[in-house]
Amino acid sequence: MKYAPVIVLLSFLWGAVYWIFVTDHPPDALGYPHVRAELAQPEGASSPVMYQGGIGRDRHIQVSGAGLFFGVVTFVGFSMLIAWGCRTRNAREEIAAFYWNLMVMVSILFVAALITMCTVYQSSWDSPFEPHYLGAFPFGTTLMFLGICGVPVGFIALYVLFYREFILPKKSQTRFEELVAARQARANQHPELDS
Amino acid sequence: MLEYRPYIVFACILIYMVMCIVVGLWAMQRTKNTSDFFMAGRHLGVFVTSAAVFASTMSGFGFVGGPGIAYKNGTSSFWMMVSISIGMCIMFFLLGKRLRLLAGLTDSLSVPEVVAARYKSNRTGGLMAIALLPGVLIYLAVQIKAMAVVLFDLLQDLSWASNVSIEWCFVLCCSVLVFYCVTGGMVASVYTDFIQGIIMVGAALLVFYAAMTTLDGGFSEMAQIITQDDPESMQPWGTLGMISCLSIYFIMALGVCGQPHVISKLMMTKKPEDSRHLLPLSLAGFMLSAILWVSIGITMRAMVVGDFHQPLVNADEASSAFLTQYAHPLLAGVVFAGLFAAIMSTADSFLNIGAAAIVNDVPKLLFKRQLNNELLWARIMTVLIAVGAALIAYFAEDTVAMLGVMGWSAFAIAFVPTVALGLNWRRANRLGAELSVLAGFVVYGILFFKEIALPFNFHPGAFSLLVTVTVFFLVSIATPPDVIDRDVEELLEL
Questions:
Q1: Is residue B479 part of a domain?
Q2: Is A33 helix (H, G, I), strand (E, B) or coil?
Q3: Of the four listed, B41, B99, B276, B403, which is most buried by Cβ atoms within 10 Å?
Q4: Domain-embedded: residue A177
Q5: What ipTM does this complex have?
Q6: Which residue of A has its CA nearest to B469?
Q7: Smallest CA–CA separation between B184 and chain A, in Å?
C-alpha cells in the first residue's frame, strides 16, 4: 500500500491524457496563421511567422475540463515530488507537523493559482476584446506570472528556512562525513578495490 | 552616435570574447588534473555556482528563441519560462542534496558515474554516458549555429567585414569556445558562466527599461494593441492553446532535473549545504534574465501588429530587430554580448560533459580501464566534439528551436527517472532504469521521426516522459531490488 499514492497519481495522469485524446478536436484548437497575410507570411518568409488564437470559447470549451484535470494532477504531482524530496531519517520530528502543514498550504496555493487562472480566463470569453486587466496584462496572464510562477517561492522559503531540519540535518551531514572517511580508509587498505 | 552603432556593438562583443580568452588562460593555471577539468576541483563558491546554473538553464534558446516564440505564438511561449520556477524547486528538492552527497562519497566526476555508483552497475552508467552523447552534439550544434548566425548578421553592417562568410563565422565562434574550454576546462567554464550570468541579468534589466519606453503607454499599451488584434495571444494560453501549454509546462518543469549541463553543476559545490543558498540565487538570476524574453517578445509583437514596424521574415529575428531599431547602441552592444554569453555558457558545459563521457565514463564504466594521460585526451576530445558539432550545425537544415526542444526532451527522458527519481527511491533498480530509458527513446523516436502529431498538440516529449516514468516505476516494483553498496544505500536515506 505504500505505493498507492504513486499508482493513483500515475493513473490520474494517464486518465487525463486519455480524456484529452478522446476529446473532439476543434479545427482552430492550435491557432492558425495570422489572418493578415503580410503578418503571417511576409515577403521572403518560407513558413508562417505569426499565429493567432482566434475565439477562446470555440477552441477550449470542449477540452477545458480535461485540461483542467490534467493541470491539477500535474500540479499536485509536482507538489508531491517536492514533498518526497524532503524525506530524511534525521528530520526534526517535534516540528514536523508544522513543516508539513506549511508544505500542504503552499501546495494548495499552487493548485489554486491554476484553477483561479483558468476561471478568470473563462470569464473573459464573454468580452474577449475587453478583458479585465491586473497591472499591464489581462488578469489571467498576470495570474500566470504571479501565481503559477510566483507561488513556488513558498517552496523555496521552506527549503531555505527548514534546510537543517528537513533537507540536510546536521546529523545526516555528520553521518555522510563518516561514510566518506570509512570509504577512503577502505580504499587505502585495499587500493585494488578502489579501481 | 547612431552611425557608429555597428562598431560599438562589434567592440562590445570583441571585448567579451577577449575576456573569455583571458579567463581561459587564468583557469589553465588552476587546472591540474581531471577532477579540476571536469568538476572544477569541487570547490566552487555559492555565487559562482548559482550563476553557472541559471546561465546554463537560460542558454541561447532563451535569449534568441524565447522572444522569437513570443512574437510568433504570444503568451504560449511564457509557459516555458514560468515552468522553470517549479522546475528548479523540484530539481533542488530531489537532487540538490543527494547528487552532491553521492558524488562526494563515490568521488564521481560526472552524472553517468553517479548513476553507476547508485545502481552498482557500470553498464547502466555506461549506457547513460552513451545516451547523452547525441543530445550533447545536437544541443552544442544549436548553440554554435545560433552564435555563428548572429555574428554573421552583425558583420554585415560593418563595411570592412561584410565580406566575411558564414563559414568563417563558424570557425571564429568555434575557436573562441574551444580555446577557453580546452585550456581551462570546467574551471574556465564556470567562471565565464559567472561573468556571463552577470552580463545576462544586466542586459535583461536594461532591455526591460528600453522596451517599456518604446511606446508612451508602456506594456499596458502594448498588451491592449495585441488584445485588439487577437485577444487569445495575450491571454494565458496564447495561440497554442491550453493542452499544448500544459504539456510544455510538464516537460520543461520536470525536465530541468534531467538536464546534465545543469545538474552536473550541483556536484561541484565546495560543501553539500551550499544548495540551501543555490536554489534562491539561481532562480532569482534566471527570472531576472528572463525579463528580456518577455520584454522583447511582447514589444515586437505589439510593434508589428500595431503597424509601427515591418513584419519579421523570421521570428528568431525578434531580438536583433528590437536591439537594432529601439535600443541605444551601447545597450545593444551589451545585450549582444549578453546574447553571446547565454549561448556560450551552455555550449561550454556541453563540451565538458561530452568530453567527460568519452574520455572518462565510457572507458571506465564499459571497458573497466582508464586512459593514460586523461587530461590531454580530455582536451583533444573537447576539440573534436566542437568540430563535430560545428559540422552538424553547418549542414543541419532544422531550425534552432526544433533542435533545442528535441535535445531538452531527450535529456529529460534519459535522466529524470534514472537520476532524479532513482536517487530518492531505494527500490528503483537497474532493469527499471535501463528499460525506462529504452521505452522513452523508442516512443519519442517514433513520434518525432514519423512526425506524429498528438491531439491538441500534446507535446511528444511530455508523452514520452510519462511513458518513461511509468515503465521505471512498474518494472522496478515488479522485479527484485538490486544489491548495492551499503554506504550508498544508507546515503539514500540521509
A1: no
A2: strand
A3: B99
A4: no
A5: 0.95
A6: A10
A7: 27
